[in-house]
Write a structure and sequence with these properties.
Length: 166
Amino acid sequence: MGFGIPQRVSACLFLLVALSSLVFAEGGRDRTQVGHDITIGPGEEVSEATCFGCSVRVRGHVTSDVTVFGGSIVVEEQGEIAGEAVVLGGGIRLEKEATVSGDVTVFGGQVRFDPTASVGGDVTNFGGSFWLVLIFGLPLLILGGIIALIVWIVRRLIQPSVPATA
């Protein structure tokens, strides 16, 4: 005899729960916030931190990247980012003995380092609001031009032709 429908459903649910727990086990150490600052405390380890409209303060260890849109990154004394630190529309500050193993990239903000802080990769700083206007404004301008062109073409196609009178 084989399994009945209730046993098959139970087995599928068990398998689904087991697999999803494996898939999300590593993801449970990620931190993603919108509008609320992220603080990684001393002795705490997070795999990745992403923040939209807020800031990230690292006192512990981030095993991958920290990405911030519209905020800042502060790596405090002996804090560590094993990957890259990327900020769009804000700045980054590395305090005493802070470490970023990868690259540090800042668009539209400032990069400040303590002399004892270390960066393993490249430091790229596109300071000033020009870069933000270029990144966000230029695509919007192009999109507006495409929409205006479509509206013009549709009006030309819809407009009735009027014969010329002599």
